[in-house]
């Protein structure tokens, strides 16, 4: 399974993918800034981590910038994000809120805040990654889906595959 499977259940977007890499490595790709800067964001975008405190209550503040001229109007665009870690079970699960923000870390009130639960499961073929993004309501979920979240996250996971399979 090198493709992403996705479906919606109520107000939750569920995406999963199998990585042919050890669970510890896939988890570390989500839990260290140096790893995240290599793959976080869709293809054609670069990510810079500005703060990263990987513990419950800790903040992750980052900026993705489109560096691909072929992406037209998106070229040069910045997209800031701010996450707050809720729960961390090393090598098994990361739970955090994820929000659109500005450069100062102020959350954008016009875009939804989601709670994301990422699970990392051992399989005979590698690591099964399951991400559940919970939204406050169906409208918020639909808003993010229409923004291209499934396609963007799929592209992002392709980049992660390249990073952990090296």
UniProtKB/TrEMBL annotation:
Signal peptide: none annotated. Residues 20-163 form the Activator of Hsp90 ATPase homologue 1/2-like C-terminal domain. CDD domains: SRPBCC_CalC_Aha1-like (cd07814). It holds the Pfam family AHSA1. InterPro entries: ASHA1/2-like_C, START-like_dom_sf. Belongs to the AHA1 family. This is SRPBCC domain-containing protein. The lineage of its organism: Bacteria, Bacillati, Bacillota, Bacilli, Bacillales.
């Amino acid at each position: 399974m090198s493709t992403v499977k996705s479906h919606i259940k109520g107000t939750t977007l569920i995406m999963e993918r199998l990585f042919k890499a050890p669970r510890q490595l896939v988890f570390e790709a989500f839990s260290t800034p140096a790893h995240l800067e290599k793959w976080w964001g869709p293809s054609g975008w670069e990510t810079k981590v500005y703060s990263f405190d990987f513990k419950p209550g800790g903040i992750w503040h980052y900026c993705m910038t489109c560096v691909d001229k072929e992406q037209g109007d998106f070229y040069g665009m910045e997209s800031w994000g701010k996450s707050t870690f809720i729960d961390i079970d090393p090598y098994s699960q990361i739970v955090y809120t994820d929000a659109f923000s500005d450069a100062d870390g102020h959350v954008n009130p016009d875009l939804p805040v989601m709670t994301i639960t990422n699970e990392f499961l051992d399989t005979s073929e590698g690591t099964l990654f399951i991400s559940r993004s919970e939204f406050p309501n169906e409208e918020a979920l639909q808003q993010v889906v229409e923004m291209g979240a499934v396609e963007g996250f799929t592209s992002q996971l392709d980049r992660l595959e390249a990073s952990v399979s090296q």
